[in-house]
Amino acid sequence: MIFGSTKLNITPVKVSEIPPEGELLQAGRELIKASQEWKQTKVFCKGLVQGITAPKASDDDEPWFGRVSVHDSTSISFDELWFGLGTKKPEHESKFVHNIDGIKLLKQNSDQAEIWNIHYKFSPPISNRTFTVLQVIELDTSSPKRSGLIVSIPIDTSPDAELHKQEIHGVRGRYVSVERIQELEDGKIEWRMVTSSIPGGSIPSFVVHTSLPGQIANDVPLFLKWYESDKEYFKQGTSKPESEVQS
User: Fold this and answer.
1) 78-96 per-position pLDDT tens digit
2) Closest to 174 in 3D by CA, of 195, 191, 149
3) Taking every annotated instance into account, which residue ranges of this chain make up the domain DUF3074 (predicted)?
4) Strands 171-172 and 129-140
């Protein structure tokens, strides 16, 4: 999908051709806004997650799917959700996405943009997969209702020999995604995610398109299960330093 001059799809971007961070974030905001008009599909995880899907656009390589879940701030706070999803993202994902068995920071472009290689291990006959993405992350506290945005786009490291050799081997997959954590007027918190992906290899497209909505929906209860099992870690991660409290 094209927003302004920025195209969000599964075509990998060379490191030397990465769009400015501001453009990627703006494209992510516009995509999330557009997703509010997408078609609702199945409800997953005992009513916790609403699936959505985008109308096919002529510039899309693969379909877009998404999910929306709303969380009571008495069960998990915005700070805790953002800590788990918007900080140390690949490391935290490996805590609840159990197929992830390797992560590697390839390059830090700025305080809010990093290139990561993420490796997924699967049982035979499915081969292991490797994904390399740029993740651009922004926490917006300028309005009374805070929001956080994570934009991930696929990266092609092949022109950069030093980065390329650091990647963990596996069948090369690609994904693009945007996640938003948003405080709502009623005090609740919305977690919205949209993605388009291709696993690479010989897995038929219809299998991917059929299974992906359920897979991304299942990440929500898996994350909440991790949160419930390690609340002390989240408490430490969201507590303000003493110097900040005193200021």
Assistant:
1) 999 999 999 999 999 999 9
2) 195
3) 64-226
4) parallel
Residue 245 included in any domain: no
Domain harbouring 73, CATH code: 3.30.530.20
Task: Report if residue 247 sits inside a domain.
Answer: no
**76-to-156, 191, 225 alpha-carbon distances in Å:** 37, 12, 12
165: which 2 tokens? 């050799």
On whether residue 244 sits in a domain, the answer given is no
Counted domains in the chain: 1
**Cβ of 136: how many Cβ atoms within 10 Å?**
25
The b/e string for 40-66 (b: 16+ C-beta within 10 A; e otherwise) is eeeebbeeebbbbbbeeeeebebbbbb
What is the β-pairing status of strands 39-44 and 13-14?
unpaired
Which token pair is 234? 């989240």
Summarised one tens digit per residue, pLDDT across range 39-79 is 999 999 999 999 999 998 767 789 999 999 999 999 999 99
- R_g over Cα of the chain: 18
Contacts of residue 141, defined as CB under 8 A and 6 or more positions apart, other chains included, come to none
CA distances from 148 to 60, 138, 143, 183, 213 (A): 25, 6, 12, 9, 23
Residue 102 lies in a domain: yes
Amino acid of residue 46 = K
- Domain range enclosing 145: 2-239
**C-alpha span between 95 and 233 (Å, rounded):** 12
